[in-house]
Amino acid sequence: MFDTLASQPNDPLLALIGLYNSDKRADKIDLGVGVYRDDQGRTPVLKAVKEAEKQLLATQESKSYVAPEGDRQFLDLLWHLVEGGQTGRFAAGVQTPGGSGALRLASDLLARAGARRLLLGVPTWPNHPGIFGATGLNVETYPFFDVPTQSIRFAGMIKALSGAQKGDAVLLHASCHNPTGAPLSAAQWDDLAAVIAERKLIPLIDSAYQGFGEGIEEDVYGLRKVLRAADEALVAVSCSKSFGIYRERTGAIFAVAGDARTAEIARSNLVTMARTSYSMPPDHGAAVVRTILSSEELRRVWMEELDSMRNRLNGLRRELSAALADSWQLAPQIDEQEGMFSLLPLDQADVLKLREEHGLYMPTSGRINIAGLKSADIGRVAEILKPLLR
Ligand code: LMR
Question: Which of 7, 123, 288, 299 is buried most deeply by CB count within 10 Å?
Fold first, then answer.
């Protein structure tokens, strides 16, 4: 029977990891998949995580099941980090295998609840259309970012969303937009929230980089604003980046409503959909996050580490932007953008040429992972890019 199947291509973003690893050049540079790296190119385990793991090893007495929805204390602490008790809304969460697991459950829930459409900004994370298409949702798009001018297409976005209607869901990135890094201003978030309230849209907010943009609180300004405005919402949270626990597959999906009963009904559906898919989420990463967030000392250590990751990214943005400034007039935008990614105006041929001729790796979209830069490489990267950025 398997011979009736068509062979599937590798995921282009994940395939880049293998391509980079098999390149023998010593001066190759990896600006591909979105993981944080230090100036030596390593993705170290955070000190707060190591300490939490030590504590878990010493104190955990059972590996028995936790609960269908996962670890309630983890969910409460994570929700508090995201929402901060500031919206007056009721949320019911389910722990998931990473942010992708959260998005998949959100998609299943929207499909089951009969959402008319899910609107995705263009461009967005390439796995978004895949995840939402897989559950049969009717996926459509709205304009978000213009690559040649490196600017948010805010008027186009508002126009498209103003034409949406009750029953439509809209995907938003809480901060550190993937792939563009383009941040909405506070005033733009306010306008967006007003349209969501007026058109009765259901926001599905993808929050995967809290703390990597301007700060832990600053990065959820828009998210909180939108939650206050919406009747119902979904929030998909990833702990992969903020806690550096990528392979532990740790995240959560929160259903948000105006009353506890409605949020609980949504949770019961999320739980049953998880049960028929992977039954229950893995525990370890959530136990680590719970241990960090429930300890004043570990939380302090973690926040310092998050600050230093953010400061490094911001420093690299400044340096790259300065190094490109004499030949590319939009170079200052790199510094204005936030988080791990920027989307350069390169076409596929440019990207393949950079890969072949210079060992500079990025996806064919032209997205660069700023964290993949080392200070010492910035001059060379800028010189390689300059002839292509005009
Ligand atoms: C990325 O966009 O590079 C990351 O979110 C990793 C992934 O799973 O695609």
Answer: 288
Is ligand 1 within 6 A of the CB of residue 33? yes
96: its two tokens = 């998931």
> Looking up tokens 């506890």, which residue turns up?
260
Contact 89, 227 (CB under 8 A): yes
CA–centroid distance, 336 to ligand 1, in Å, is 22
**125 CB within 6 A, ligand 1:** yes
State whether the Cα torsion 223-263-97-117 is positive or negative.
negative
Which of 239, 264, 296 is the C-terminal boundary of a domain? 296
Q: Are residues 281 and 358 in the same domain?
A: no
The distance from CA 146 to its chain's CA centroid, rounded to whole angstroms, is 20
| pLDDT for the residue numbered 390 | 78
Whether complex ipTM tops 0.85: yes
Range of the domain at 19: 7-45+298-388
Give how many domains the chain has, as a whole number.
2
pLDDT of 169 over the 90 cut:
yes
Last residue of a domain, one of 296, 316, 334: 296
Cα dist from 308 to 35, 36, 169, 303, whole Å: 15, 11, 35, 9
Residue 92 and residue 25 share a domain: no
In angstroms, rounded to a whole number, what is the distance separating the alpha carbons of residues 219 and 3?
48
Q: Enumerate the active-site residues.
A: 125, 206, 208, 241
Same domain, yes or no: 221 and 184 = yes
Measured in Å, residue 33 CA sits from the centre of ligand 1 at: 6
First-residue to last-residue Cα distance in the chain: 52
Protein residue with least CA distance to atom 5, ligand 1: 34
> Among the residues of the chain, which ranges form H helices?
12-22, 47-59, 72-83, 98-112, 127-134, 154-162, 186-199, 221-229, 260-275, 284-293, 296-324, 331-336, 348-358, 378-385
Tell whether 74 and 124 lie within a shared domain. yes
DSSP 126: T
